[in-house]
Specification:
By secondary structure, this protein is an alpha/beta fold. It contains 12 helices and 11 strands. Bound molecules: phosphoric acid mono(formamide)ester. Phosphoric acid mono(formamide)ester binds next to helix 2.
Length: 313
């Protein structure tokens, strides 16, 4: 693995999941692998879990960690050939090369604008770091993907599954703000690689990109989709066709105790209680969101371990 910007950077997903579960049982097994190596984490956006779990993962491997909130530094320019006479003070070409001299691995969080579909799809922030940095890049959630979250979700489903081929349903739920498609995209891509019975349910107008969905069944009837589910992964996303718009806040799509049945309820967090998922679900034994969040550390740790091993090979 030279970078981790997509779940497809993992060559053998099932093997990596098992390695993460083994690492979780003994998290300090490789605590000298990262000695004298530095992870620089760059945040263009807010984070609780990604920030803390990735730092913890790096420290479990013996790495040093430096964190920079991009809002506290120079405004970066990403366009080539621009006359920089407006708000941007530093070009990504210099910034990425300079940071590479301080870092052995760079991790980046950069959400989409949700205003310009083509620009967001180009992943210009993440890809500029890949182009101009001279060290591996880790995606801590970009415009279209959240592969650390998706690996976490795969680990969590593997740990909690009691059937060989569980039924996994990704359900849209209402939210007051326009949210990105990244978590849903990466979750679907990852589940498509595993031996699960995957389906997606959302209201009309919330179809995700066809290149993500491929042949995964999509239901506009949530009740029908949730029938006999083993795992219900709840997530809001804004419309993809009417790009970045909130076209429904229908409270009937909230996940309730009645809807969840015996299934395990997952969410990447943060979650808006009683808007996305009812208290009665989040406070019940059906909810596995807390152990799911715990697995963020071990997903990040197995990724950083693979990158460190590649650096020293
Ligand atoms: N799930 C997730 O990425 O959480 P944060 O936004 O808090 O990092």
């Amino acid at each position: 693995m030279n970078n981790y910007t997509s779940i497809h950077d993992i060559k053998n997903l099932s093997k990596t999941i098992q390695e993460a579960i083994t690492l979780k049982a003994n998290p300090f097994q490789f605590d000298t692998l990262g000695k004298h190596k530095t992870l620089v984490m760059l945040f263009f956006n807010s984070s609780l879990r990604t920030r803390l779990s990735t730092e913890k993962a790096a420290k479990n491997l013996g790495m040093d960690v430096m964190i920079l909130d991009i809002s506290n530094t120079w405004n970066l320019e990403f366009k080539d050939g621009t006359v920089m006479n407006l708000q941007t003070a530093e070009h990504i070409k210099e910034a990425a090369q300079v940071i590479s001299q301080y870092a052995d691995i760079i991790a980046v969080r950069a959400f989409p604008s949700l205003k310009n579909k083509e620009e967001d799809a180009s992943e210009y922030i993440l890809n500029s770091f890949k182009t101009y940095a001279s060290v591996p890049i880790v995606n801590m959630e970009s415009a279209t993907a959240h592969p650390l979250q998706a690996l976490t979700d795969a680990i969590t489903i593997t740990e909690h599954a009691i059937k060989k081929k569980p039924k996994v349903v990704l359900s849209w739920a209402p939210h007051p703000k326009a949210l990105p498609h990244a978590v849903a995209n990466s979750f679907i891509k990852t589940m498509q690689l595993l031996d699960v019975d995957l389906s997606v349910t959302h209201p009309k107008g919330y179809d995700l990109a066809s290149e993500i969905i491929k042949d995964t069944p999509v239901f506009y009837n949530q009740k029908k989709a949730l029938q006999d589910a083993d795992f219900v992964y709840v997530k809001n996303w804004s419309s993809y066709d009417q790009y970045g718009q909130v076209i429904s806040q229908d409270p009937n799509w909230m996940i309730t105790k009645e809807k969840i049945g015996n299934a395990s309820c997952m969410h990447c967090l943060p979650v808006r209680r009683n808007m996305v998922i009812a208290d009665a679900v989040l406070d019940s034994e059906n909810s596995i969101v807390i152990p799911q969040a715990n697995n963020r550390t071990f997903a990040a740790q197995i990724v950083l371990k693979n990158l460190l091993e590649q650096l020293s090979s």
